[in-house]
């Protein structure tokens, strides 16, 4: 795979460019093919591949090194680093586990409700934990405790439904919040750089949250239909109420072990409240989402006030993701400035149905296909958004609107465990087979695609973002 990809990239550099494609555009596409080969095969750490891209582009005359480094000064880079520090504080304080156990425990007496609360809790953690993998890693052991507490185990329908639902929700919730995952932070930066459209935390929430919630509710119904819950068999064949009792005992036991709220948890909770309120009221005080994140992250490091120690925390932050994130911004700029995006857009527009709905469906198929080979949302967005913007201009559509469709549908990595680290995390517990997730993934893809199209054509125009306009 790596050899074929790199050989193809080398051929693209040597051969004459196709008609209409500038030489710089051909070279950036060659770099992309080589990068995809390395990313998919994981022959190198993704961040190392990112650094190789940064080295290659100036040497090939695609983008100057000063322009590359300027992209690393984007405010979204600071926001991403801040979110990693904040997420670390939530995990270190054990506040995330306490909140998860408490919310799931509210489903007493109803297995179906307990499942919905598990999904809702997973969704809620998108507000505090910016990594879909971390959210799945947090919820998976709790789900295992619930299943085992009901007297069930691997191979049970409840186990399949819960362990498939958790990664699905982590993926869908990623687009509900501006800080839901690194990919969304990246997308917001690209919208601002390329379209001069600024997303505040609250406007992103109002725009994308309804579709995510509706998708999750429909997937909850679908999973219960595909994997009927064994209420009568749970807890040694007890009735539904008794079945839930085994899980309730487990949850109560785990909560008791945590004890009362610690000082560290109280400090973390207070700082999180300040953060969320600051993000939600950006329009009132004018402090940007990125700056507010940096302020709260800094407070968490101050003696007496904070809950983190720099020397301990700095080694636990995923700096590789930050490098990869900056590389993605560089790629987006290079694809746009080299003329490659325009060339691809013209090809894309010729082979797709003209019109908003046809374009939205084509973007959905494109991003679903990209997700088969790329597990990183940021990489998918870096490849797809510049093409979408140019395609929209070619087809006389609103690039903001079409880009939003791509931003939501880039989460559709539902088919195979290898498509998502959160799916792989859940799959590792052994509660479902690949065939199970393929079946559920097909249904989830249809649901998310359908809901996204519904939101795009019916709800977003009410907010001033129409398919044929130019945004607000």
Structural overview:
By secondary structure, the protein is mainly α. The chain has a domain at 75-188 and 201-313. It has 24 helices and no strands. Helix 8 packs across helix 13 (240-258).
Secondary structure layout plus pairing:
Layout: H1 2-14, H2 23-41, H3 46-59, H4 65-71, H5 75-93, H6 95-105, H7 111-124, H8 132-149, H9 157-173, H10 182-195, H11 201-226, H12 234-237, H13 240-258, H14 263-280, H15 282-285, H16 289-299, H17 310-313, H18 319-337, H19 340-350, H20 356-373, H21 377-394, H22 399-409, H23 421-427, H24 434-459
Helix pairs in contact: 1-2, 2-3, 2-18, 3-18, 4-18, 5-10, 5-14, 5-16, 6-7, 6-13, 7-9, 7-11, 8-9, 8-13, 8-23, 9-11, 9-23, 9-24, 10-18, 10-21, 10-22, 11-24, 14-16, 18-21, 19-21, 20-21, 20-22, 20-24, 21-22, 22-24
List keywords for this structure.
72% helix; 472 residues; 24 helices
Task: Give a short summary of the structure.
It is built from 24 helices and no strands. It is mostly helical.
């Amino acid at each position: 795979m790596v050899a074929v990809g790199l050989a193809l990239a080398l051929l693209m550099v040597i051969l004459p460019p196709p008609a209409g494609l500038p030489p710089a555009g051909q070279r950036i596409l060659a770099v992309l093919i080589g990068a995809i080969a390395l990313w998919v095969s994981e022959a190198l750490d993704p961040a190392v591949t990112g650094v190789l891209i940064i080295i290659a582009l100036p040497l090939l005359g695609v983008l100057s090194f000063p322009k590359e480094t300027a992209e690393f000064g984007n405010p979204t880079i600071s926001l991403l680093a801040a979110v990693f520090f904040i997420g670390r504080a939530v995990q270190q304080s054990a506040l995330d586990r306490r909140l998860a156990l408490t919310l799931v425990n509210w489903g007493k007496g109803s297995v179906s409700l307990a499942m919905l609360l598990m999904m809702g809790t997973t969704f809620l953690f998108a507000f505090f934990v910016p990594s879909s993998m971390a959210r799945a890693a947090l919820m998976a052991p709790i789900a295992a405790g619930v299943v085992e507490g009901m007297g069930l185990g691997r191979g049970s329908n409840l186990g399949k439904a819960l362990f498939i639902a958790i990664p699905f929700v982590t993926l869908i919730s990623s687009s509900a919040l501006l800080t839901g995952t690194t990919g969304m932070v990246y997308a917001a930066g690209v919208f601002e750089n390329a379209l001069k459209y600024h997303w505040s935390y609250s406007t992103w929430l109002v725009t994308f949250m309804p579709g995510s919630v509706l998708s999750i509710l429909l997937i909850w119904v679908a999973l219960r239909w595909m994997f009927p819950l064994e209420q009568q068999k749970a807890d040694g064949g007890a009735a539904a109420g008794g079945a839930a009792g085994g899980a309730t005992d487990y949850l109560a036991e785990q909560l008791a072990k945590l004890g009362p709220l610690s000082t560290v948890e109280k400090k973390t909770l207070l700082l999180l409240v300040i953060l969320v309120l600051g993000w939600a009221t950006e329009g009132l005080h004018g402090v940007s989402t990125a700056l507010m994140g940096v302020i709260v992250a800094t407070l968490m490091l101050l003696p007496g006030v904070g809950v983190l120690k720099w020397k301990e925390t700095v080694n636990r932050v995923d700096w590789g993701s930050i490098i990869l994130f900056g590389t993605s911004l560089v790629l987006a700029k290079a694809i746009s400035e080299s003329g490659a995006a325009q060339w691809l857009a013209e090809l894309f527009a010729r082979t797709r149905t003209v019109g908003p709905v046809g374009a939205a469906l084509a973007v959905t198929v494109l991003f679903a296909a990209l997700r088969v080979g790329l597990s990183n949302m940021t990489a998918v967005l870096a490849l797809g958004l510049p093409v979408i913007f140019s395609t929209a201009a070619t087809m006389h559509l609103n690039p903001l609107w079409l880009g939003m469709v791509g931003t939501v549908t880039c989460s559709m990595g539902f088919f195979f465990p290898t498509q998502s680290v959160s799916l792989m995390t859940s799959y590792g517990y052994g509660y479902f087979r690949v065939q199970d997730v393929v079946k559920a993934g097909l249904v989830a893809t249809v649901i998310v695609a359908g809901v996204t199209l519904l939101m795009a054509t019916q709800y977003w125009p009410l907010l001033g973002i129409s398919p044929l306009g130019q945004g607000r």
